[in-house]
Amino acid sequence: MDQFLHDQPITPRTDVEKQAVVNRLKRIEGQVRGIQKMVEDDRYCVDILVQISAISAALKKVGFQVAERHTKHCVSHAIKSGEGDAAIDELMDVIKQFSK
Amino acid sequence: MDQFLHDQPITPRTDVEKQAVVNRLKRIEGQVRGIQKMVEDDRYCVDILVQISAISAALKKVGFQVAERHTKHCVSHAIKSGEGDAAIDELMDVIKQFSK
Amino acid sequence: MDQFLHDQPITPRTDVEKQAVVNRLKRIEGQVRGIQKMVEDDRYCVDILVQISAISAALKKVGFQVAERHTKHCVSHAIKSGEGDAAIDELMDVIKQFSK
Amino acid sequence: MDQFLHDQPITPRTDVEKQAVVNRLKRIEGQVRGIQKMVEDDRYCVDILVQISAISAALKKVGFQVAERHTKHCVSHAIKSGEGDAAIDELMDVIKQFSK
């Protein structure tokens, strides 16, 4: 998947929307830094794995949020314009990759 | 899983081992910051989702690296000391959580 | 998720479509029976786990095939009828469950 | 992963153990047949996807049961015999494949 159907979402993200996603990502970034400290402090492996699982779950949540908005805006727009199949194929491909 | 069998790995991580894991995590941290920028630049949703998938895959890789070391040191030590079952149950629980 | 938006797909599956999905499922059914035999023959655990992974992968493939058709027919129809949001929420919910 | 370390588990499965796994697999086989009927009856896609998710979850459960027994018997035995690393590498490889 090297090329995408578009460069930008069909409906631009509002500042409020951007901020909501960025805030979640900042929290994830902080969690990743937290694990670095756990490793440096030589913390128990299982404790670290539980934290990694928490980050994976948080990332999945952001991903589904992005996918939902994408479907409600970009894919819906494509469907209404009679170009739904390409948009749906692209969506399914990325969800397959994402849900591995 | 609120309490773990130990606070630290049975064999302390060497500086080289710590550095290897921390380096991978720093790269992941950078990737998470990269997505924040993509959101702020209002980049295409599918492009963002592909990046999120890449981070998830990188996190899984670190997780399996930690799990492998854990099994080779902590779990192996527990097995040799006749306390393998509790260690294996703890390992399986965290892997279940991790592979969701 | 106890109630669904519909009882049937908006576009009925053709006999050819039904047969294609049923054939895949019959193959999966045969693989599940194959593992029963492996267990009865006391085959090596890792060998069994590899087969279970293969079935999981095959099931995911069928699932994505069903999800794709669903999006191209039912969800697309809902979007064109101005009822896209409910259909997309339902789709996202089931994909979340499915990709656990 | 074409060749495995062994052909059989180090401790043979008892009849009770075999029966427990086979019973779970028979239930899964029945669920797969149930989906075939749903497809033939042209049932709603999301309904089918929920059932596929249930089977995936049931398969994962059997897999973890097999992996746990494997670790408690075969891997533990290998560790006590000083051949732990190969057994742990094999275990991690199959769990990676399994948790995709």
Automatic annotation (TrEMBL), chains A, B, C, D:
Listed CDD domains: BsCsoR-like_DUF156
Protein name in UniProt: Metal-sensing transcriptional repressor
Organism: Ornithinibacillus xuwenensis
Pfam families (alphabetical): Trns_repr_metal
InterPro entries the record matches: Metal_Tscrpt_repr, Metal_Tscrpt_repr_sf
Top-rank lineage group of the source organism: Bacteria
